[in-house]
Amino acid sequence: MVSIASSGRGGRSSAVAGIGVDARRRARRRTAVLAPLLVLALAASIVVATTIGSADLAVGDVLRGILSHLGLGANPLDPLRDGIVWGLRVPRVLTAAAVGAGLAIAGAVMQALTRNQLADPYLLGLSSGASLGAVTVILLGVAVALPAAAFGGALLALAATLGLAGALGAITPTRTVLAGVAVSSLAGAATSFAIFWSSEQDSYREILGWLLGSLAGARWSAVGIAGVAVLVIGIPLLLSGRILDAFSFGDTTAASLGIGVQRTRWLLLGATALLTGALVAVSGSIGFVGLVLPHAVRLVVGPGHRTLLPLSALVGATFLIWADTLARSVFAPRELPVGIVTALIGAPVFALLLARRRSEA
Amino acid sequence: MRPRTLISPTSARAPRTPRRRILTAAALAPTAGLAVIALLAGCSASAAPADSASTGASGSTSAKAVTLDNCGFDETIATPPKRVITVKSTSTEMMLALGVGDRIVGTAFQDGAVPSKWKAEAPKRNDVSDQMPSPESVLDLEPDLVYSGWESAFSADAAGTRAELHKLGIASYVQPAACRSQGAPAKLSFDDVFGEIDEAGRIFGVEPTATKLVAAQKKQLAGIHRDDRGLTALWYSSGTDTPYVGAGTGAPEMVLEAAGLTNVAADVKQTWASLGWESIVDADPDVIVLIDADWNTAKSKIAQLEANPATANLAAVKQHRYITLPFAASEAGVRSVEAVDSVATQLAKLKLG
């Protein structure tokens, strides 16, 4: 266990540095095969997941219903069934795809920037800050839309973390993580206090769903928020692979490769945090996607960020679509918060990864 | 050095690998909120299955001592309690209905104001706590009985465990319909509810009052018109993203059935459950029963139903076929018959089709 965390830097750089020409070629060949397959899998998942749900709707009707909204043909569904497909399922599946892709990108970037294998998108106090914002709205009935409050909370937490890290001197990975811990603890305590003090009757259930991460409230507005965040912030991050590769060798190497280390780190941390904040705002803090999936993808295609980032995004989107489909259909008509499902699947996968790392070390 | 002082609680643990310590703390911080939630969650899941069939008191009417198997806890109540702390409204209301409201020395976790019919008898309200009381606040009032509508009141972080209270000579009693740890019946019935009233009558030494009350309630229940239009209903308790609804085995199902309604969540073998909107939209209930509470009003639920494009098309929403019930009457107890009466009366006024 100890070796896993502390060998993060050395282990990763030697993995990059030690990769042979053959291995690199093999990884590239794998990527060439995998990329189109993953794109197909994502597209197929979006279509198939919309045909699954507790309401017993014919697959053909669902698909024709969706096509009709895209301007093709007549809608065979009555307004209620159409509400199920176009008002509930489709926005939920698309939100899952956007959130899954965004979390995977944010996680991979965060792991590279902090050179920390256990980094996840919520590292800088973001989820605690967002939770505090959300809980404040749910419990105190503050007249602000919940996503706005969560986003605001995440940004405040980020500002506090970066401000604290900056006040300590240059923003190094360790300082950033430490500052994030301080901010997380504080926001976590404030959240717990708010819940403990004012939670009435069954409002805890709503909060619990939010803290565990849930896509049950995903409507078209959520698709908009998560989709825009992924397009505007996630895609530019995808293109930062070369810079992240340099970062994973250490600040000195990155600087010698001509990268303005401080400025770039600020910029990337800020962008990742904005992306995460937007995602948390619509889904709560869904665990494990941003932590585990980049590792899983890295094991298959190697640590180069130019392939790692886009493939992680594809896998993340597909994974979260299916996790959420399970969450809403396995115990239908009852629902689980999707965070439970991602953790149920994610935890064993993560354990396997850890075991594998250990045997390699 | 400087960062270390920032997180003294974690660095106090000191050992070798600083990074790992940091990560542990980072991983733990977000779960703090969950832990609190879990505590609160334990307090709820309210009127869970009853085992009142098995709670029959063995004490006869002549002997004062009442021996009970209450939620699997053996409790002997030697003399009728004179100083009672009630937790949740159902227990307070039971005592008021039995005319022993003057024995209440403190209340906790009440769900709302006492109904006007009991206003006169209601004790000057002495709120021990808005939520679960602490053991110390309970002991401070020197009660001889803590009477709770939720079993979760009897835990170390609430009013105290039943064994602890017992050692101090304080009896504890849970409304049998809210028993969870043991003897949950497959499905709550009005026989269970009447059994509770009889049992409470024995505990407080007012059997004749209880017998009269049960007879009156049976008569009232028998007189209620059962709707025969074959209508379906959703019992919408709370929740926005995942609605929390009355399911197939608890008080909601019992009340709906008695009013002649078919619960759309009847197949879910729970008292209450979190459902997905999809299954509810798919079921398209004829009427929606809205639970009205100060913290989650019927009005806010109507707004929610109308704002959500998927539920706005439900027949019940489009035609405003709503029935409202106060929260306290939605849990099993002395107001359950009144709840049926209220549902039936409101239902009869609704025009369908």
UniProtKB/TrEMBL annotation, chain A:
Keyword Transmembrane helix annotated: yes
SUPFAM superfamilies reported for this sequence: ABC transporter involved in vitamin B12 uptake, BtuC (SSF81345)
One GO CC term, this protein: plasma membrane
Coiled coil stretches, renumbered: none
InterPro entries with a match to the protein in the record: ABC_BtuC-like, ABC_transptr_permease_BtuC, ABC_transptr_permease_F420-0
Membrane topology classification: Multi-pass membrane protein
Example of a GO biological process term: siderophore-iron import into cell
Family statement: Belongs to the binding-protein-dependent transport system permease family. FecCD subfamily.
Protein's UniProt name: Iron chelate uptake ABC transporter family permease subunit
Organism: Schumannella soli
